Amino acid sequence: MEQVIANLFEQYEAGKMSRRTLIKTLAVAAVGSAAAPPVLGAEGYKMNAVNINHISYGVADYARTRDFYVDLLNMKVTNDDGKQCYLHFGDSILLARKTRQPDNKPFVDHICYTLKPWDDKKVEAELNRRGLSPREDLGGHTRSFHIKDPDGFDVQLQGPLPT
Description:
Elements: H1 2-13, H2 19-34, E1 49-59, H3 62-73, E2 76-78, E3 84-89, E4 92-98, E5 107-115, H4 120-129, E6 135-137, E7 144-148, E8 154-158
Parallel strand pairs: 1-4, 5-8
Antiparallel strand pairs: 1-5, 2-3, 3-4, 6-7, 7-8
Helix pairs in contact: 1-2
């Protein structure tokens, strides 16, 4: 699954795919992954991605990006602070924020997957067991971890958000 997503972003960044096509394809991939059985590493903890929690974009003009997705795909805006906003669609979020790149170049910061079942201590132990050097993220609503996929993309893993 990670390789598929990495390939999608490569196509997007090379200009071979529009943002709209990228988002639609990622949404289909998220639905498909919800039906997949949990994967068990050798003597490890079962982790099962149930959806894409959010995709974090660094964009040249967050307001223009916000308005594009609201107008085109009817995404709902929350947490708009003048520098970034959350764009909700289904159970997922596109987080558009002003790019931190010196050349103002847009980029995908990270993709966050929601895991079920979620046991942060077991997830952390499994990530360490696999040599993935998890970086804890305490900035959200729940404890989560960032790792790098085989192509160097930042992947965030977290449990379901509290209701």
